[in-house]
Amino acid sequence: MRFSIIVPLYNKSYSLRRCVDSVLAQTYYNFELIVVDDGSTDDSLALLKEQYSSDIKSGLIKVFEQENQGVSSARNAGVNLALSSYLCFLDADDEWKVDFLERMCGLIADYPCADLYCLAHEVCRDGTLAKKPGHGLPDNHRGYVKDFFASSAKGSVANSSKVCIRATSLLKIGCFPLGVVAGEDLYVWMRLALNGQVACDMSYSAIVHLEADNSRSARKDSVPYPFIYFSKNKIFAKPWSLNKYLFVIFYKHFFRSVLDLKPKEAVLHLLAYIKIYI
Known about the structure:
Layout: E1 3-9, H1 16-24, E2 31-38, H2 44-51, H3 53-58, E3 61-66, H4 71-81, E4 86-89, E5 95-96, H5 100-110, E6 114-125, E7 128-131, E8 142-144, H6 148-152, E9 163-166, H7 167-172, H8 184-195, E10 197-210, H9 225-232, H10 240-259, H11 263-275
Helix pairs in contact: 9-11, 10-11
């Protein structure tokens, strides 16, 4: 089994080596690493080419450069370059433990019918391990997820640094939506779960870093794309658990805006959520 690992890169020179080194240190070796630079303005690209020149020359690491078009465009560019049937994604400020691919390979082998595969993750804040977040599944879970949406309403079953996707399944839904600021990854997980099965291994094999640059917080005031998508596509017969998950997403964004004293954003979230059902 071979994996294509896709890393979207934008101004992450401070964390890029940590990310790439964690991939190169894997105990499972059958992979290609695709780094898509989305118009970085720092020295990320120069660092990559200098530090990993031999791996780039050997073809182990592929580097693709494009003008800044957003994370969805960068991920899709990586998908188009991928030669493998299974696609793993890793953000440039996150990392994997050495057993990530080995555990993912075992999960796919034992549960071959899923479209989306997930491992568990830890959270690290400014270099210090903060917590092992809830994932909405029992700590010993390994196998198909009975109800992805019900579990996701309780915790983080999938995120963009701990998943593996069957390439044909991602292409079927059109990959990641372009021009989207927030929730583009949530949309992909939801569509995959609606179309097929999800399998999860609750092994903490990924580390998500919350850095001082607040790279993730920049999205928090934007309307999550699933609200926009499902408000325009009411033909979907949404299971009750999906409706519950959509409410949880709304609740978190709405009250975060209220607590941050941003009434305009709070109203935008409320209106976008209401449009799903009217």
